[in-house]
Amino acid sequence: MSTFAKRERLLLADLLETVGPEAETLCEGWRTRDLAAHVVVRERRPDAAGGALIKPLAGRLEKVLAEYAAKPYEELIQLIRTGPPRFSPFQLKQLDEAANTVEFYVHTEDVRRAQPGWSPRELDAVFQDTLWSRLERTARLLGRGVPTGLVLRRPDGRTAVAHRGTPVVTATGEPSELLMFAFGRQSAAKVELDGDAHAISTLHESKQLGF
Fold it and tell me: Which spans of this chain does the record mark as coiled coil (predicted)?
């Protein structure tokens, strides 16, 4: 079984440690300390983490995030490295891979790509295929609110429809780049957009991509 989630977890922890607690990220309003707190709360505080999707719990989530962000930065990094608590469902390797491979990849890139002079990582074909598999399954959820039709296309021609509609914009790139684009990191994703010029401009300005 692959261990991409574990690899990306450790890469994220190392990167957070290297850049420090006040570095910028691609997550609007978040410094690295805030992103680290988010990762820890997601794994260790399911009573609050649901606030990301359930509006009545949003206030509790913000409070818990603030509490964790106030902890020593080194402690947050260590909690990320060691992973979820013993009885967490994330301890199951299959669930860890399914839930965390994309989570940790995207957040690692959130930090990397916010730093000056960044360049795309060289990713092996197996990992690219893994990211594509995840993207195929979630494309319509990620693109549900965009104002145009949106097709995601790999260089080999394989496609996933993120949103049905007209006019259609086609985003072409490696799965890793399409994933960043679909998660709302349009400005930092290395993709080529084809379609009506106005539709492309509208899509770039849209805040509806991603969760």
Answer: none
CA separation for the pair 132, 76 (Å, rounded): 30
In a domain, 45, yes or no: yes
Whether 118 is in a domain gets the answer: no
Is 172 in the same domain as 132?
A: yes
Give the pLDDT confidence of 17-48 residue by residue, as tens digits: 999 999 999 999 999 999 999 999 998 887 77
Q: Comparing C-alpha atoms, which of 83, 200, 184, 82 is closest to residue 143?
A: 184
**52 pLDDT higher than 70:** no
Are residues 100 and 135 located together in one domain of the fold? Answer: no
Whole-Å CA distances, 115 to 25, 93, 139, 182: 8, 31, 27, 21
Could you tell me the pTM of the whole model? 0.91
Bin 163: left if φ > 0, else alpha if -120 < ψ < 50, else beta. Answer: beta
Report the alpha-carbon distance of residue 55 to residue 111 in Å, rounded: 27
Q: What tens digit of pLDDT does each residue of 148-204 get? A: 999 999 999 999 999 999 999 999 999 999 999 999 999 899 999 999 999 999 888
d(CA 174, CA 128): 7
